[in-house]
Amino acid sequence: MNTSFNINRPVNSDWAMKLNIDDYPVVVSQKVAWGDMDAYAHVNNAVYFRYFETGRMVYFERVGILSYRDETNIGPILASTSCDFLAPLTYPDDIKILTRINEIKEKRFNIQSVIYSETLDKIVAQGNGMIVYYDYTRNITCHIPARISRSINKLECA
Questions:
Q1: pLDDT digits (tens, 9 = 90+) for 75-115
Q2: How far is residue 141's CA from residue 2's CA, in Å, rounded to a whole number?
Q3: Would the pLDDT of 1 be above 90?
Q4: HSE of 97 in the Cβ direction (CA atoms, 13 Å)?
Q5: What is the Cα–Cα distance from 64 to 148, expressed in whole angstroms?
Q6: Residue 86, number of CB atoms within 10 A of its CB
Q7: Cα–Cα distance between 92 and 84 in angstroms, integer?
Q8: Residue 18, pLDDT score
Q9: Three-class DSSP labels, 15-66
């Protein structure tokens, strides 16, 4: 059975454009913490990956990935990640972490994250993560369970 599908929503390449939050099914709001900043008086580059992780985990909870992993020992593993830093983020600020999946294949999916600064009123970072489905008992990759694919499709196409 072919469980692949493409949601066909590329990341907006016009970073100065106003963000359409409706394009992202998961939106997490949080404050930039003073401790997120580094000696150069802006948020440290490694912190953006924590922000992406926050959005990713909320997404996983909403589609049942974490509960399925707990039940079966089959779940996601982050295979690769990237970030384009578009503008420096500083304290104080309120940010939105926006997350969506744009492509699903039989054993993997690509998750996109955007960090939006309320103070700057623009996108300050955009990242991607390649998630591979993994059987933690057998230590091998595996197909994304149909239940999870359906749940992702339902969330993304709602």
A1: 999 999 999 999 999 999 999 999 999 999 999 999 999 99
A2: 16
A3: no
A4: 21
A5: 7
A6: 17
A7: 21
A8: 59
A9: CCCCCCHHHCCEEEEEECCHHHECCCCCECHHHHHHHHHHHHHHHHHHHCHH
Amino acid at 97: I
Average pLDDT over residues 137-153: 98
Peptide bond into 92 cis (omega under 30): yes
- Using DSSP's 3-state secondary structure scheme, residue 135 falls into strand
CATH 3.10.129.10 is held by the domain 22-156: yes
User: Is residue 8 predicted with pLDDT exceeding 90?
Assistant: no
Who has greater pLDDT, 1 or 138? 138
For tokens 């948020």, the residue is 43
Tell me, rounded to whole angstroms, the distance of Cα 28 from its chain centroid.
Answer: 11
The closest of 105, 111, 112 to 143, measured between CA atoms, is 105
What pTM did the predictor assign? Answer: 0.89
What span, in angstroms and rounded, lies between the C-alpha atoms of 148 and 68?
A: 8
What H or E segment, with its residue span, contains residue 148? helix 146-156
Cβ partners under 8 Å of residue 42, min gap 6: 88, 89, 90
Query: Which structure tokens are listed for 73?
Result: 């020992």
Average pLDDT over residues 37-60: 97
